[in-house]
Design brief:
This protein is α+β, with helices and mostly antiparallel strands. The chain has a single domain, classed as Penicillin V Acylase, Chain A, CATH 3.60.60.10. Helices cover 33% and strands 23% of the residues. The chain contains 10 helices and 16 strands.
């Protein structure tokens, strides 16, 4: 077996390849992809307005079987999309190494997630390598760019916290049309919503039933001397899933992340019902950056004195311009996110309201920040089926 050290050296070389490759043009204008509505036992995939929502509940094996069954048809489309992307990027030679690197990280999935993953792979009769890649991409790629803004209660027109987020990913044919909200109700843990894509078991962006919300932003440089990549760490998206399953406050989340072995650098924008923060994370440190005058903003640079290397960013300036208004509403947060959009890389735009457990989500056309947002009531979805 190739050693973790060798994989680590390989992964340090990948960011250059990903960032310098040419983008893949989206398909010609066609009707936006629509999921086939279906159910499997207590699980179902159906539309709430224009938002596709998959609900799964139970023990890990139960949720895995539910998700795998409901994802099966769509995963074939994802597989074809990834193959086309690899060809267009000229990655035929390095793609097997990327997959092997992800396979190494699979061993670091929390046990319950590994059990769910195995059951889903079996139920979907899916390409295991593809599913591993989907769930470790944020650990083995370096081509992501995102924007986040949190307005704490004192800076909100309603007196309730607002959390906005743009997800920016490499242009990837029609991936942006495959946005899916998955509602997990795991036995004995917090129910949560994950805004992502088919085959994704970790969390890129999400909120739980306690009103704790998280979003990951990629970071490439840090002042500390921590390892750039630790192949023994918990993959980033799986770590954030643990946060939503196990935590109710920022303090809880910070303790969990600090205690965990981490694969690499990231910024996690996080809020509960009362406050927001940016957790600046390396393999060596977790630094909590608190709001400035009730507002947090983040793009793709650390800004704490302990970790910051460079913090100049036009998208960050666009977000910070919203500070000029004394109190913000949902529309103000949406305008700030649109001002910080990254063109055709901006695939999802969302605003969380943790107090009311509402999600406002835009996707399907690019940039998503220019599209109308649909509102989803998560409170009802978090409740057990049949509960009043």
């Amino acid at each position: 077996m190739t050693s973790p050290k060798c994989f680590g050296i390989l992964l340090l070389c990948l960011p250059l390849a990903t960032l310098t490759a040419q983008p893949v043009a989206p398909r010609p204008d066609k009707p936006i992809f629509r999921y086939p509505e279906s159910n499997h036992g207590a699980a179902e995939l159906k539309y709430h307005g224009k938002i596709p929502v998959l609900e799964a509940a139970g023990a890990p094996e139960e949720m895995g079987a539910q998700i795998g069954t409901l994802h099966a048809k769509v995963l074939k489309e994802i597989h074809d999309l990834v193959e086309g992307y690899v060809r267009a990027r000229g990655w035929r030679d390095i793609y097997p190494w990327i997959v092997k690197s992800g396979s190494l990280l699979e061993w670091n999935f929390p046990l319950s997630h590994r059990r769910e993953f195995a059951a889903a792979t079996k139920a979907a009769n899916a390409d295991r390598d593809l599913l591993i890649l989907i769930n470790t991409a944020f650990d083995v790629f370096s081509a992501f760019a995102c924007s986040t803004i949190v307005a704490e209660p004192a800076r909100s027109e309603t007196g309730a916290l607002l959390f906005g987020r743009n997800l920016d990913l490499p242009r990837f044919a029609h991936l942006h049309e495959l946005t899916l909200v998955t509602i997990y109700r795991p036995t004995g843990k917090h129910a949560f919503a994950s805004i992502g894509f088919p085959g994704q078991f970790g969390v890129i962006s999400g909120m739980n039933d306690a009103g704790l919300a998280v979003a990951v932003n990629e970071i490439l440089e840090a002042k500390d001397d921590g390892a750039k990549f630790n192949p023994l760490g918990t993959p980033k998206l799986m770590l954030l899933r643990r946060v939503l399953e196990e935590c109710a406050t920022i303090d809880d989340a910070e303790k969990l992340i600090t205690a965990a072995t981490r694969t690499g650098m990231m910024a996690v924008t996080i809020c509960d019902k009362k406050q927001g923060a940016i957790l600046e994370i390396t393999t060596k440190a977790v630094i909590r950056r608190r709001p400035s005058e009730g507002i947090c903003t983040c793009t793709n640079h650390f800004r704490s004195k302990e970790l910051s290397v460079a913090d100049k960013c036009g998208r960050l300036d666009a977000l910070d311009a919203s500070r000029a208004k004394n109190k913000l509403n949902v529309e103000d947060v949406g305008k700030a996110l649109h001002a910080a959009n990254f063109g055709d890389l901006t695939m999802q735009t969302m605003i969380f309201e943790p107090t009311s457990l509402r999600l406002h989500l835009a996707f399907g056309r690019l940039p998503s920040s220019a599209q109308p947002r649909e509102t989803l009531d998560l409170r009802g979805l978090f409740a057990e089926k049949g509960a009043k």
